[in-house]
């Protein structure tokens, strides 16, 4: 396992070369600034990269997309990508939100420790430039995930209601989600979400969001990390992602050319022997 | 394109969550929570998430206005401060010092609130000072 410093050094030389060779107009990553505090930064000169760091985890896909949206023609942005950043950007390319030609993804591996915090089953990008891939974690082994996804419908609904009623409707989940790009957003008005009501209606707020992202969520955890109420939002998506994996052998963010089965498989008749995923078995009770 | 993330503190309440303002070519265009902030720890409420919206808003007051008849007219800072001082002095002379009080704001910095209470206590000579967050 490479030390953190070795990874940073490798990233600096790789990214400096991208800027020097004109492969990228700018680099988007994290910098340690005044007082040793880390924040996202756009590096345009090779020397500026001396302040580059790779920790802590800071989801960069959405700000990267927004930078590219307002960038002038010919602008190419190199983005330091963790596995989840890469997968989010792949989904954004699929949905024509990011121009693949304007993007250079530089892949960085997450530590095993980070994978355990995120319950990430794939803590590395497909194009790994820096660091070594750590082992993933099966989110369904986590007691907190089990608590919310196991049991009969009534039990689970009760548990989810208790968790979701903590919502203060800050829209942090929507704002931080790299995939939440609908304009206008369904969560911003009638008839789905009433203004001035807190906590929000569970079905029309949280489940609209969950289903909007069902085939796109890459489980980066940005929503959950932004939630001031500590709602385990990714747990909703773990269930959706497992259903897609088991039902359609599909996983979001892996292949830019792979179409989502939600939009492209719906005319196929369901196979008789296709098993119903365990997590929806209780719908029959 | 010059784009930078500027660290600051949310102006909306006394909690003081850390946030980053995204500044593109000198204009504030977006807010991100500061994950390194020991106060907010990467969280913001809906006010914080929208904090950039008022900065360049066309309805924002950017200079003093005085009401003349039914409309407001622009005046200089010098005129505005002189006018306010004159009116406050008039009220104090006519009704006594206790007739004046002040409401400060949780959106102000500690230093601004210190100066404000000093204006009331040392200037107007009373303790009629409070703030908007005590609703």
Kindly describe this structure:
- The complex is a heterodimer of chains A (285) and B (135).
- Chain A is built from 11 helices and 5 strands; from the N terminus they run αβββαβαβαααααααα.
- Chain A is of the alpha/beta class and 285 residues long.
- Chain A has 2 domains: 4-118, no CATH class; 139-284, no CATH class.
- In chain A, strands 1, 2, 3, 4 and 5 form a 5-stranded mixed beta sheet that branches.
- In chain A, β4, α3 (83-94) and β5 (103-107) form a beta-alpha-beta unit.
- Chain A is globular and about 60 Å long.
- Chain B folds into 3 domains: 3-54, ADC-like domains (N-terminal domain of TfIIb); 61-95, no CATH class; 97-135, no CATH class.
- Chain B is built from 3 helices and 7 strands; from the N terminus they run βββαββαβαβ.
- The longest helix of chain B is centred in the middle third of the chain and has 19 residues, at 77-95.
- The relative contact order of chain B is 0.11.
- The interface between A and B is medium-sized, with 27 and 22 residues.
């Amino acid at each position: 396992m490479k030390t953190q410093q070795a990874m940073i050094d490798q990233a600096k030389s790789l990214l400096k070369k991208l800027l020097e060779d004109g492969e990228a107009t700018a680099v988007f990553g994290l910098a340690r600034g005044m007082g040793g505090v880390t924040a996202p930064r756009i590096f345009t000169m090779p020397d500026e990269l001396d302040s580059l760091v790779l920790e802590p985890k800071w989801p960069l896909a959405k700000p990267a997309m927004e930078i590219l949206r307002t960038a002038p023609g010919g602008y190419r942005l190199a983005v330091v990508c963790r596995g989840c950043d890469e997968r989010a950007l792949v989904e954004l390319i699929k949905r024509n939100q990011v121009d693949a030609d304007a993007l250079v993804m530089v892949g960085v591996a997450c530590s095993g420790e980070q994978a355990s915090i995120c319950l990430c089953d794939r803590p590395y990008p497909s194009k790994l430039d820096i660091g070594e891939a750590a082992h993933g974690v099966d989110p369904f082994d986590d007691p907190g995930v089990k608590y919310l996804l196991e049991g009969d419908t009534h039990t689970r609904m009760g548990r989810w209601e208790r968790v979701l009623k903590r919502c203060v409707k800050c829209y942090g989940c929507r704002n931080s989600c790299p995939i939440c790009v609908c304009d206008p957003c369904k969560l911003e008005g009638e008839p789905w979400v009433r203004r001035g009501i807190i906590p929000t209606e569970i079905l029309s707020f949280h489940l609209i969001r969950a289903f909007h992202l069902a085939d796109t969520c890459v489980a980066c955890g940005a929503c959950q990390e932004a939630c001031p109420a500590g709602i385990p939002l990714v747990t909703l998506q773990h269930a959706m992602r497992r259903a897609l994996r088991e039902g359609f052998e599909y996983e979001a963010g892996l292949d830019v050319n792979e179409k989502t089965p939600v939009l492209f498989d719906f005319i196929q008749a369901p196979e008789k022997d296709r098993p119903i995923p365990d997590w929806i078995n209780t719908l029959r009770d | 394109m010059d784009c930078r993330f500027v660290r600051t503190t949310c102006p909306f309440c006394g909690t003081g969550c850390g946030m980053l303002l995204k500044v593109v070519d000198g204009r504030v265009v977006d807010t991100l929570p500061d994950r390194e902030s020991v106060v907010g720890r990467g969280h913001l409420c809906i006010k914080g998430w929208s904090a950039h919206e008022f900065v360049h808003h066309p309805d924002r007051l950017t200079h003093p206005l005085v009401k003349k008849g039914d409309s407001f007219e622009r005046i200089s800072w010098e005129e505005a401060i002189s006018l306010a001082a004159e009116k406050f002095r008039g009220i104090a002379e006519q009704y006594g010092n206790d007739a004046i009080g002040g409401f400060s704001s949780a959106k102000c910095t500690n230093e601004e609130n210190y100066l404000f209470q000093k204006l009331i206590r040392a200037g107007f000579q009373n303790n009629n000072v409070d703030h908007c967050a005590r609703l």
